Every structure is written in structure tokens, then in C-alpha cells.
Amino acid sequence: MTNKKTALQFFCCVLLIITTAAADTITSGRPLRDGETVVSAAGIYELGFFDGGDSASRFVGIWYKKISTRTIVWVANRNSPLNDTSGVLMINENGNLVLVGGANNRTIWSSNSSRILENPVAWLSDGGNLVIKDEKGNFAWQSFDHPGNTLLPGMKLGRNLVNGLDWSISAWKTADDPSPGEYRASLDINGYPQLFVNKGSVLQYSSGPWDGMAFTGSPVLKPDTYFTFKLVITSDEVYYTYEVKNTSLPTRAVIIPTGVVQHLTWIERTQIWSVYLTAQLDNCDRYGLCGPYASCSINNSPPCDCLRGFQPKFPAQWNGADWSSGCERRAPLVCGEKDGFREFSGIKMPDSRHSWYDKNIDLKECKKRCLENCSCTAYSNLDVTDGSGCLLYFSELMDLRELSQNEQTLYVRVAASEVDADRNQKKRRLMRIIIGPTVIGTLLICLFCWCASKRRTKRGLVDDKDMELPLFDLATVSSATKNFSAKNMIGEGGFGPVYKGKLASGQEIAVKRLSKHSVQGVQELKAEVNLISKLQHRNLVKLLGCCIEGEEGILVYEFMPNNSLDHFIFDPSRKAELGWQKRFEIVMGISRGLLYLHQDSRLRIIHRDLKASNILLDNNFLPKISDFGLARIVGLDQNEGKTKRVVGTYGYMSPEYAIDGEFSVKSDVFSLGVLILELVSGRKNRTFRNSDHLHNLLGHAWILWKEGRAMEIMDESLEEESCVKSQVLRCIQVGLLCVQKLPGDRPNMASVVFMLGNEDVHLAEPREPGFFVERGSTESGRVTENAETLTILEAR
Which tens digit of pLDDT belongs to each residue from 549-581? Predict the structure, then answer.
């Protein structure tokens, strides 16, 4: 009896070992049927069947096993879904992995491997790769060679030069339908390699060439503590890949249905995919927007400008905002030693399809070779880490844009006369430096001593060691505002009253004076000074200086003659002054300013109080984000934070911030969504009322959208014939996407700017907004969100 029991235990152990060993494989005797799954050894990835957007469509795919939100990273039968649950994934007699099902068990999909192995199995690795291999480790096929819309760590984007295998990713048709969509991301290997995003056959985006650390159009790709990025060029293959240093961090690069390429990381605490970086940042990333020999700057209006030494090829078209023909040289090239080169830095390197490169020659030899070839238009080095290598361009320079973080220098071929002009300018500059060094030095010493003296007497509210701005005398500010006259007061916020003033020089200023009774105080003043003094963007208000004497805390800004946005859109007598085109430009300007704060500035800043009264308008109605008293700096590798002190403005705060004190870049996106809907409707979210229901502006807009009546929300003061209907609808849809209840559902600012600026981009359907039902009066400060009552602390 004992022997039988021991034998039975041994048999069970063996069976358990065999079953465990087979859990990550499909064999000829163990196929995978619909309803079953295969799990990788460490339980990271899972292979099985899932529903597409149409519940009748069934696909075979790989997804993350331990992530609560099912995230598909690879699909076998993208082009041929099953229409029932009869599917079976199996190894056939030829050693291929095949999907059979439907009538007569027809073959739906096959790996189509030409290599025959003995006793092959399909094995799912912990890296997410599905491999057909034998017991000796030989393999005949792998899913990594056939990407879908996702690039996992270790996967390649490029081409195998031996067998012609092309590694590229293509977007899903929609968020729920894995069928191939219109957009495709690939590595173009003509000339020096660069990443392309195409819509069909039309090039939409180029990353620029690799500079040794990153693609020059994506400087955020530089090596960091989380990832390593590589471009590999050998005689057998050319590809781009990345690896994650912490293998426990789920991460993926994906091209979404709108054509945007995003790098995402899973945040376990919040249970959302967070956008680590985005390839397409803004309108300047539209391929060739400014044409040849022109550079795009998102901070300029218009954004296109010819390179120095070049002029518009067709001035009439250029002045009419058609920049596609670009620019041409002012002085023609002679060819040979008489030509020269002009240096351009802080830019994205041009399209390198028509280029030649050599990793083994230096910049001096590179210049020589360019001069010797009359077709050479520019040159640069290849690797910014050590200045090595040579890259020669042999066509018009296309797709340039300003990128202050890029360290690579482009040497553009110009006529000798242009080089002489540069030399003369340098001589004149040198003479100016030589003429008055003593006088200038003396003045600087005197100025330093005076400033030091003033600072010693101005220790009041804040330690001015932290200040990086000019200090104004209280007497100067008082005189400029006529002793803070009530007639000069132009507004009042949580910080205190704001006055219009004029300096002795004639410059108009806006003076914000800290009130003794303000809910904000020293901390907010200090935050605003330290934050905004480091920021430079045309859509952010410019802080000119501050005044700190005794108990006085004063901020001095550039004056905005058109007051704030709420001054117009919520005033029946003024709202007509803001036509649709102006409103759309204001939406774009605010979005670009917010993108700068979240992603493009040297600090990552969450504003936390974005609202209509904090958007100031200059004399051309250019919007500028103001009031950084509640803003927070987070690390460049950080997107969120938490506070016990929830302060902000009722009607603009996101649910997660108001309820749990969790603020993030996505809470700013929520506020922007409210602003967009207010701009379109001319109605204030906080005070919106409708006799048919209790919804606020967000809920009202969402209901109209679901019913196909979204245009009914448009401000009655807008003339319908002057509006671009598709543009209005796009703004409403983007606004609703921004105010979705869950932060993970909201787009990031790079996506918002891209969606607003590109009419042909397909947008996702918005889900239910947060805080879309109101109960009771606004004075109570109480709102309900899906029957959950909460109280919001309002600091304005």
C-alpha cells in the first residue's frame, strides 16, 4: 500500500512538472483553443483569444498578464478576424503555427515559415516574443519580426538587409479594432537612417537623423536612468531599438490610431499608462511645413522663417501663409573653394534621405569633401558625444525646426559674399567689445555695488537670494500706479489687487500687490517668482521684476491691454469681439503654452489653476498664461504629485485633485478642456444652467455630443457662416476628451496640440466627463459626481 501511495505521489509530481513546463508553449499535441491561454514562465505575458471592436470578431494576441487594463501588444490575425469562437492555434505538420476555425476549419492565419524543425514548439518568452523553436534552441519564426502597433524592449525598427525583412509598426484602425489603420512608423534607411511616420504613402513626420544619442527631432530620447536607445548599422541589418534598465517596469512604444507615436510606462500606483515621451510635439513636426531652407519655430507667429542668407522663393505665396515652396539663396553659389559655410545650431537636422556618411573622418575632412562636390548643400558631424564622423547633404534642406536642446551644428553652404558679411559683422562686434571695456567694467561694478546695497535693505517677506529678477523700488512702483490709486486697479484675485501703471520710461506695466488678507501668501509669491522667472514662451506672461520692502510683496508684469479672457467670453456686450478664428487661435496658444510647461521647458510644471481669468490677452489677442502662485515643479521623470492642501478654482479642478489631492499634468489637461468648452460656448462651467436637466456645461456638452447635436453648444454671438464647422466640432471633441473622468483617458498636451492642429487626424470618442452633474446652489461649494458628494475648498 505504501509503495502504491509513493508511486502515485511521484506520478503526480512528474505530471505537475510536465504541465508547468508546457504552460508557456504550444505543441503539435497541445494546441490553444479559444478560451484557453498560454502564459510566459514568469507570468509577464499571456497569449490567447480576445474580442475586437466588433464583439463578433475574434483575434489571437499577446497582452500583459499582470496589468489590470488589458493591453494588447501583438496580434496574429489583424487582417483576418474570426467571426466565432471556433478558433484553434496549433502547430501543423509543416512546423508552422496556424490559426484555423470557421467553416471547414479553414486556415485563417499562418506563420509561413520556410524552415522546417524537428518537433517544433511555439514558446512565449518573458519578453513578449512568440517563438517557433526546437529543443536544441534553433528557431524558425518569431513574432518580434512581425510587429503590430507596438514596439517592446528588444524589438527592432528597421530592415534586415540579408532576407529583406522589414520591421515597422502600424496603427490600429481604431482604439478597439486591431485591423491595420492608415498610419505606419518605420526606419527609413535611404541615406543616413531616420524614423518616419506615413499616412498611406504621404510622409507626415520625420525624426531627423541619429546624432549618436538620439534622433535630432527627439532630443528627449537622450539616455537616462530608465532606458537605453540604440541605432545599429551593420552589413546585415539597420535598426533602431531600446532596452529598459529596470526589467520590472512595463513599457512600450506604440503608434496610436491618430498617427502619434508615444512611449508609455505603466504606473502601478495609479493603474494607468503614463506617456513618457511623444514623438510629434506640435505643428512644427508636420513634415516640410516650411519648405526647403526654412526653419519652423512654434514660438513664432507665423512659425516659418527663412534661414539666414536665404529669402522666400515666392514672396506672395509666403506672405499668404503658403510656405511649401520654402526659401532660396540670396546670393548664388559659385562652386568650389569660393563658397563658404554658415553655422546653425539649436535646430533639428534636415531630412537625410539624400545624404552620405562616413564614421571615420573628422569635421575638417568633411568640410573639404563638401566643397569638392558642387551638389553638397551642407555637412555636420555624426556623433555629438565625441564630435566624430561626417554627414554630407546632397539636396535642398528640408524639415528644419528650432530645438534649443539639440547640440549638433549644421554647416550650410552659402556664397562667399555671405561669409564675408559674417566676417565683417564679427569685426564690428569685436571693435565694440574692445572700445569700452573699462567704462563698461566700471559701470558693472557700480551697478553690482548698488544692487548689493539695495538687497541688504530689502530683506522683508522673502530672502532675495532666491530671486532671479530685477528688484523695483517701492517708490518707483508707487509712482507708476499713482500711489496704488483705486482708479488704476484693473482686477483682483486670490493674490491681491492688480494695478495698471506706467514707468518713467513710458513702459506700461501690471502690478500685482500681495494683500494682507490674501489666501495666498509668501509661499505663493515666492513660487511665482521662482517659477516664472525661469520660463520663456510667447504664450506665458512675462514677469519683469518684483518689489520686496518691509511688508510689501509686489510682482511687476508686462501689461496686457486686452485684460483677461473672461473679460470677453462671459460678457454679453464684449463676447462678439472674439470671433471664431480668434477663439481658435486662443485655444491653440493656451495649449502650446501648457505643452511648454509640461514637456518643453527645462522644468516640468503643473499650473494647478488654469482658468479664463488667468489667461491674459495682448493687443493682438495673443493669449498668455498667468498666475503661477499655485504651480508646482515636478521632476522631468515625474508627471504627478499629491497634496493635503487642495486649493484651486471651482469648475476647473479635476475630480482626482478635488477629491484626493492628486494633481498631475492630466489635471491641467482637465482644466484646459473646461476652458475650450467655455470658449466655444461663451458660457461659464460654474454657473451654467439648463431648464431641461441638472448637468453643468461639461455634462450638457457631452449629452449633445452623444446625440449628434454638438453644434448647439456654440456661442450664439458667433456667426455660423464665419465658423469652420469641422474646426468647432474638433474643439468640442478635444475639450470632451480632456475632461474625461479618469486621468488615464485624457490625452497629454502633445496629443492635444497635434489633434487641434491636424484636421485629418481621427479622434477617439470621448467618455463620461468628471463632475458633470450639479446638485444644489453654487454658493454651497458642493458638487456631486455620479452620486458621490464632495466639498471643494475654493481659494478664488
Answer: 777 788 888 899 998 999 899 988 888 889 999
What is the structure's pLDDT at 782?
32
* 416-435 and 437-456 helices, crossing angle to 10°: 60
Amino acid symbol at 375: S
User: Residue 511's closest CA among 538, 484, 473, 541?
Assistant: 484
CATH topology agreement for domains 21-145 and 147-277 = yes
Residue 625 CA: distances (Å) to CA of 192, 284, 532, 609, 622: 41, 21, 10, 10, 10
- Concatenated DSSP letters for 60-91? EEEEESS-SS--EEEES-TTS-BSSS--EEEE
Phi, psi for 553 (deg, rounded to 5): -130, 110
What was the pLDDT predicted at 686?
A: 81
User: Does 2.90.10.10 match the CATH number of domain 21-145?
Assistant: yes
> Is there a contact between 394 and 417 (Cβ–Cβ < 8 Å)?
no
Residues of the chain with pLDDT under 70: 1-22, 54-55, 219-225, 404-405, 420-469, 493-495, 515-528, 530-531, 533, 635-647, 691, 720-721, 771-796
Question: What is the value of pTM for the model shown?
Answer: 0.63
Identify the burial level of 215 via C-beta atoms within 10 angstroms of its C-beta, where 0-12 means exposed, 13-18 middle and 19 or more buried: buried
258, 755 contact by CB (below 8 A): yes
Instruction: Report residue 43 as a C-alpha cell.
Output: 507570468
List the catalytic residues.
609
Q: Where are the domains of the chain?
A: 21-145, 147-277, 285-430, 455-558, 566-791
Q: Which CATH superfamily is domain 455-558 in?
A: Phosphorylase Kinase; domain 1 (3.30.200.20)
